[in-house]
Amino acid sequence: MFALGSGWGLGCLWLSQLRVWARDAAGRWALGACQARLCCSGGGEGRPGSEPEVSPFGPTRQTLKEWALLVSPFGRLRARLPCHLAVRPLDPLTYPDADRVLVAVSGVEGRARALAGLQVEYDEALKEVAIVSDVIDPQASVEVTAPLKFGK
Fold first, then answer.
1. Shortest CA distance to 138 belongs to which of 123, 117, 124, 121?
2. Residue ranges per domain, the chain?
3. pLDDT tier at 149 (50, 70, 90 boundaries)?
4. Of residues 112, 116, 9, 108, the one with CA closest to residue 64
């Protein structure tokens, strides 16, 4: 049976029961069952020590810093960044008051420019969240989770 699971932003294929035919030592064919799991990035189960410490696709990315700002549900978001920016809606079941903006910066740890000059501020008078940096590492990525009623 195949089931689609989720990894870190990617779909994963899980094989819950894999049946194989194998020849045993006595020379007879036998049906055996084994558990198998294929998983994409985001880790998974495998033989201990079989996973490389550094991904074959480049250095491992991780969350470098996070902010949780208390905001007005009818605010604005202003961003000026030389890197990837993703904006997602805030979960209304987790935050029914829609009064939070969550900001997470991910990148490669150890890069000096990763967070250099990054400003994350909320101006209550303008009801505006500003995320600004001209010198942040271009390989970094910023993910913003904002209320559904937040405007541009």
1. 117
2. 2-34, 62-146
3. confident
4. 108
